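Why do we bother with holo predictions? Because pocket geometry can differ from the apo form. Keep that in mind while you read this record for pyridoxal-5'-phosphate.
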Amino acid sequence: MNKFIYLDAAATMQKSDRLIDAQAEFLREKYANSGRGVCARVAAVDNMVNNTRRRVADFMNTDSDNIVFTAGTTDAINRIVNILKPTADTIVVVSDLDHHSARLPFQFSGAKMVVCPLDENLCIDINQIPYADVFVVTAMSNVMGRAQNIPEIVRRAREKNPDVVIVVDAAQYVVHQKIDVVAWDADFVVWSGHKIGADTGVGVMYIKNPSRFVSDKVGGGMVNTVSRDGVIHFVDGPERFEAGTLPLTQIAGLPIAIDEIQNNRPNQDLIKYAYDEIKHIKRVKILTTRDACVLSFIIDGMHVLDFGAVAGAHDICVRVGNMCASWIHKKLGVDGSIRVSVGACNTKDDIDAFVSLVRGCVK
Ligand code: PLP
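The structure, written out:
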């Protein structure tokens, strides 16, 4: 049997033993609901949630009060649409770097969509930032793997409209670089825990000014009092946006994933090595730059899904298809691509196995 080779960390990162053990320990020995009791076990869960919130805040250079737990990036962007309630007159600026998760919730809301041009490097063109009521910025495309200049994009968008609401999709960026929400000055920054090695089902929504917005969800845990005639007094903190029971087990593991990603970012030398190895292979057309955080390419005359099937048959897992990013593929003039991405578990041997597979496919 072949060794299973996972080269798809950008889709979701494999979990460390430390994280799995911590979550198992929480479930076995520490489990209770948060904010719903006075016994020591519940207080310990409350502390755990507060500590994770502080750890996330520190990770993003902000305060706990600005951190809301969500189910992930897609969930957060749908929630932001419900919080902002755009109308047909609301101008929402997006770009072709967006993941479907970042753009479709706004498109679906019926808002007026405007596409910000990309420059010759396929980055958001900071010289052509349009007027926006809401600006959705993908900090790093999951296909192109390049960090965008968020502070400059935000500065220029605010020059056009000081009241613009900036929403940053940091689902890929968070894996590779430190998020500094002070430097970014965005209104919302969202990411998913599973991309950095935490469990699925937990994500983060940073809100710069929580008091400026009303929660899109109501329910348990976020209300102080409700009068008989239905007047609701919400709690003060970020819990105001967290109706219902939180994904506690995933929250218990999140600080571990943060420690691990901060201390051990994916080894980009492996991506550069893969780039150098396949760039001379005939029929291979690389779509990304050598310094990108992922390697995306096509093989002339071979459908990407066929490559995916061959790779799968060799127990090599890479991402193939449009990667929920149709717009950038359209811009590149292709229907889809093959993407290699790495995490802590990958070695040069994995890349060698992948490169010999590509060689075999073009023979
Ligand atoms: N945005 C980007 C750039 C992504 O790469 C992804 C996932 O691949 C998402 C959004 C959606 O993340 P999730 O499926 O965790 O909600």
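The chain has a mean pLDDT of 96.
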